[in-house]
Design brief:
Number of domains: 2
Distance between the termini: 58 Å
Number of helices: 5
Structural class: mainly alpha
Order of helices and strands: HHHHHEE
Largest sheet: 2 strands, antiparallel
Strand order of the largest sheet: 1-2
Helix content: 40-55%
Radius of gyration: 28 Å
Oligomer: single chain
Strand content: 5-15%
Amino acid sequence: MGPVLQKSYDDGIKPLVANQVGVEDALQRASVPLRGFMQKNVREKDVKLFMDLSGEPPPATPEDMSLRILVPAFMISELKRAFEIGFPAVPAVPDHRSRGCIGPDVDGHDDAAAGGGVVAVQADLLRPGRRLVAGGGQFGASYGG
């Protein structure tokens, strides 16, 4: 996308800053490379969704499509791609019970018998006679009993 942004800057913003063109002309010039990039990378289904929501008639050519339709359709397309890439990369968080740890764990508590996992640790912390002591332990707090 870097070359597209550079072309957009060179064609629209740079002439505007140099007072060679007006704001509307600069916006039109700067949007051409961005529009082309978005049109190449947008999903047709997302464009159709925003066309239907807008109530506007379909444009005669792709270049005539309103940015009010193209920009949100492109954003939704990119978000969908990001989720498709991101979700398979997130590993499942294993529970110690799935490893067959029954009975006392590292700190000597029988978390599996109490229900296991975070719930058991929370229940143990809330047990009468426990008090939280700030500044100790692996996560900045420890409890004494």
